[in-house]
Amino acid sequence: MWVFYLISLPLTLGMVILTLKYFAGPEVPRYVFLTVGYTWFCSISIISLVPADIWTTIIGQFNGGISFFWSWSYWSTFLLTWLVVPLIQGYEDAGDFTMKERLKTSIHVNLVFYLIVGSIGLFGLILLIIMDKIRIRDILGLAMACSNTFGLVTGAFLLGFGLSEIPKSIWRNADWTTRQKVLSHKIAKMAVKLDDAHKELSNTIVIAQATSKQMSKRDPLRPLMDVIDNMLVQMFKEDPSFKPQGGRLGENDMDYDTDEKSMATLRRHLRQAREEYYRCKSEYLTCVTQALELEDTIKNYERRNITGWKFVSSFRSERTGTLGPFLDTIELVWRCILWKQLKKVFAIILGCMSVAILLAEATLLLGGVDLSLFSVLIKSVGNEEVVVQVFAFVPLMYMCVCTYYSLFKVGMLMFYSLTPRQTSSVSLLMICSMVARYAPPISYNFLNLINLGVGKETIFEARMGNIDKAVPFFGQGFNRIYPLIMVIYTILVASNFFNRIISFFGNWKIFRLQTEADDVDGFDPSGLLILQKERMWLEQGRKVGEHVIPLARNFNGVSTDLESGDNDTDRRTVEMKVASDLSMEDIKGSSSKPSKDEVSRYAGSKEAMSSKYAAMREQKKLTSNMKPVENIAAAKVSLLDAGNSQSSNNSGVPSGLASKWASMKAGFQTFKTNIEAKKFLPSRQVEDVKLLV
């Protein structure tokens, strides 16, 4: 009985530790790491305990050990979710300078939240009592029913979205061309987000330095300002490659030195801007790396006979030694042939599991018929303990993955971020709270799909209680009705019903949940340009993402148009043509003149783009002489004095900046040639993209 559980616990612990190390940012404190890890471990322990509970119910043996572990896991997650994690989350989010003040801020924020929620709940309870819908002795049952109902209903909708989206996403990404389209859009969007985050961080640094410069050494708030100055110095030491650009002061940006709370707000703002910048940078690097690796895969597959079935990578040198050629061949077979087919097979298997779950959920209303595939499988293996628990664990884990996939998808749009090695403490705590909140309802939902026989009830079902019996207010048969609603919702999601409705009404696009399917209509030209420049820089021995900020700013308008839903191919072709013409004019000078037809066709767009480039160049001049600061004094003047030095250097452009611009623009004129020659895109797509004429 304990074999599967004892095996799963160490695996669960190892998975939690590896996942946390993969996502946690470098500045996550140890107590946050331990809190999140323990919460995740308790949540997954609930899921690992379900198969053992099913087995003891089948053999008709009550086990006190399972009852103890249920209580330990459930109440641990309950206390962590509603008390410990929110308190630590508020503490980490506070910008105060002492532990006492940060703790007071956290308690104040959480008290306000619970008072608001409690007031609403109390008002609803009084209303139900006045309407004679509930009696006072049923209040405890009502509280339990509300808690379970929230998790079950919202979890059912999250599960339905994941059951539809995960198999479709895996199947789409198995196609190389589709994956390239998706990545081109992602690169363009992330480049713009990275540029915006860079601007925000630069503005925040300017505000902090200006506040520090106007504050005297005898100011009572000077010690707090020194803490912020040390943050800046430490930031520049940790990342010497970061160069603030384009920082500016607003109307109310010099009001942070009024009191301790305003200084705490400035510190919090600086920390959030820094976290957002490095999060966007990490996501951008991930997208570019995936796109470059995909290009390598496509080129190696098309040239497999020429290279002798050996994989040639852009990120590493050729393998040497006796096993080198053999390993290169294995890598080519795996990445170019097997992995693509395995993705399709995996998508089909997950699609079948989704259908089986929907069928089981839809037939719960049929009391006398058991059409649950999982129930049939568990009953068919008889007394095979390990097999029974495996058959119970696999679909339950898939249901958890689908639910958490949807939860992260929705949460990352509004509340938090989940980025490899750059996830902040606040985001980790919020994510762990959500994971713990939905683990028991998912397990309870799965147990409803398993028909163990008349009169048989698992320990977990007995402890969670039956909503029908708890409070008649929710109506008889609630446990059997809400899954049918989830099935209907999943079918509508799979058929793109909601997307069609939202597209029909146009203005409702803000309510649409963005998926990868929205980026498969075509390639994003600005994303392709950025990717081409990244490959050129990589071949020159530079790092990925080293010069993306200036490039992203030049195509910011193009990416913004694409994000807003403008898919006019002719317009994008004109914009890319203008960019190419401008870059060729800068390189060739006056000896290379466009034709009169081109001048008349693109004159307006050229003037707009030229003015944009001129503004960007002037902005670069203001900050071209900035260097990473090495001490507090340098940090105070690194950006503020940039404008003053510009007046004495306005007669020329710094050579380093000029060479950088020349390097970026040198490849634009050969963009189409490189696409066709180096196979950046499949040859059949070249005529469709029409980037350069």
TrEMBL record:
**Which Pfam families does the UniProt entry name for this protein?**
LMBR1
Q: Which InterPro entries match?
A: GPCR-associated_LMBR1, LMBR1-like_membr_prot
Please name the source species: Abeliophyllum distichum
How does this protein lie in the membrane?
A: Multi-pass membrane protein
Q: Show the segment(s) annotated as Disordered.
A: 583-604
Question: Its domain of life?
Answer: Eukaryota
Q: Name one GO cellular component term.
A: membrane
Give the family, as the similarity comment puts it.
Belongs to the LIMR family.
Q: Mark the transmembrane ranges.
A: 6-24, 31-52, 72-91, 111-130, 142-163, 345-366, 386-407, 481-502
The protein's name in its UniProt record: LMBR1-like membrane protein
The record's keywords, sorted A to Z, are: Membrane, Transmembrane, Transmembrane helix
- Location of this chain's protein in the cell: Membrane
